[in-house]
Amino acid sequence: MPNQSGSLYGLTILSPIIDDESATPSHDLQIREYLANLPTDCKGPFALAPYTHLTRLAVMDDVIYVGMPSSEEHLKFKYLIWEANFDGDLDRYLVALAKTVPDQINAIWSHCVGYPGTANLDKFLTYMKSCQLETTFYFAAVNDKSLTQTLTALQTQRAVADFIAKHRGTPAPELQREFLKFSARLKAMPTPLPAAVSHPRGIKTGGRNE
Amino acid sequence: MSKLNVTDIQGFTLRGYNLPFARYLFLHFAEDPKHTRALLHELLGRITTGQCWDNGKPSSTLNIALSHRGLAALKLPAATLLTFPVEFQEGMKARSEILGDTGINAPKNWDEMWHSGHVHAWVAINGQTPADIDACHAELTDLIEKTGGARELGHQDAAAIVVDGGASTIEHFGYTDGFGNPDYVGVDRKSQPGHGKLAKDGKSWEPLATGELLLGYADEAGELPVAPMPHLLASNGTFMVYRKLKQNVAAFRAYIDHEAKFYTGGKAKLEAKFIGRWKDGTPLELSPNYENQAIVKDPDQSTNFTYSGDPEGTRCPMGAHLRRVNPRDSFGFKGGLVNRRRITRRGLPYGRYVPDGQPVSDTEDRGIVFMVLNASISRQFEFVQQQWIEYGNDNHLGNDKDPLLGNHGGHGKFAIQGDATAANPPMICSKLPNFVELKGGEYFFLPSITALGMLAMDLVDPR
After folding, report:
1. Per the database record, which ranges form the DyP dimeric alpha+beta barrel domain (chain B) (predicted)?
2. B48 Cβ contact partners less than 8 Å away, ≥ 6 residues apart
3. What is the per-residue pLDDT for A202?
4. Hey, are the CB atoms on A202 and B103 less than 8 Å from each other?
5. Is residue A89 domain-shared with residue A11, that is, in the same domain?
6. Contact between chains at B428 and A165 (C-beta distance less than 8 A)
7. Cα gap B204→B195, rounded to integer Å
8. Share above pLDDT 70 across residues of chain B, in percent, rounded to a whole number
9. Which range of residues forms the domain containing residue A121?
């Protein structure tokens, strides 16, 4: 199934945006404004809700005519495009979003045609699935680890490297004692929050760099 | 496309001259572009093109590139100036946060000349001897005075390091450098396996699309690279990144000496693990346990390797400099993910070379003048710098940076993958300092001979 790569699901949803001439600002601009101001750290809705590895929301105004020999075509609506990579099952994912971050989901999709809201889960699921496009050529860089496994692995990688660096040259009996303590401490560590910055990076990436 | 018009392309774009001396001059153009045009006109016939040297190498070469501010000083039409790629318009200083040029590498710590933002042009003289360089420089100074077209802001000398009385290809840390620049379709040069991109069979090599180096030709995606209008101004030109990289040789040697005490593979192997080649140039991937001059000297071997047989990095570490900047097939897909991220490099060391074992201080300025040629600075150089040098995610290395080039600030980490043998143990190097510091640089446009003529004759018309 093209929507699935290993244990990851690649979701593509196109929701038509309400075309209401009397709305000022227009619904598409209201979505753009809301999205532009969403936090991208661990307070973002897709970090608060479980399972998301990667997600992207964009507004597509129209298809662009690039000149002959292509023919000029236009979309009936402006569309909200939502792409997400997440763990496993589509229903479980959508339900988790509806239950964890209903305000944010409703704030975004309330500008879309026929959106029923999250309160009625059945209607919400039916709506989202009716907007779904089959994802083709879906590629996930890592497709056999859950979000929790990935976050824990990164935490372990960092912690083990720090432990090794710190205990270089330590005599074996002491090293073993230290390692057992470290191992217990590591196991007890809470899973890091998605999108949390563990180390500040002196570099600007993504977003409005270009 | 069978052959490029090499007489229209600057020689510096098409090949490394392998001349032992160089001087890079930085010019600020005259207030009145008329005078600058006169200077460019004088230079036009003197610029070294890509034409073959049938009668041997010349005593010196001359090449020129312009910054966006330089093009603006020439009063090019706004409709042309605005069509240059954004990163080139902004210049390297404005891109510092994107490049990770922060902290000690931030523009405020660059050499004085770069503070003003007044660098309009880079002029490169490569030569056989210092006297050849001086002679060419004197000629240029005469032309500048005669035309009143510019003033010299400063210059940077560079020279191949002399070993056993002859020019070598080693750099200040002691590694043999300059093995693999990419091949491009139509660029006539001595080619060897490993220089281009991996072919579909995953074993043989073929040249990259011309448009990865030159503007006006299809690139690896079958598209024309973003280029200024009009087409004639862009075609056969390229973009150049100039970076003066100071090498902290004392810090590097002290760090290696200290870490080697904890590494049972031996100091030479530890040094090799940092870069991915032994100091004599032998690729770790081909010879993980010892230097092998037979490999280094054999063009069929010296760059002919892949990483698919070493997915864990036990031969060449995942984070080694070589594997980072040209990951070959490290990310799978027979190297398909790296073909749009390749760069052509030029450069020479500067400063006094201090052989291993002799006292050395980092208060003395030495390093490498590093230049990159690529069709898209943002897609090629900036990507490599940001994602592969200053970050580790693509190699599953989290936030780790290039051990040698990374802007570590004393907090860097380098994981050396290994196996269960004492000769090849795993190792974590931590608290990496900056072995390399950025001392200045800029983005330049290296025009074709035709484009240079258009600039000289005020013929740039975007309509």
Report:
1. 9-145
2. B10, B11, B12, B17, B58, B61, B62, B63
3. 67
4. yes
5. yes
6. yes
7. 10
8. 100
9. 4-63+75-133
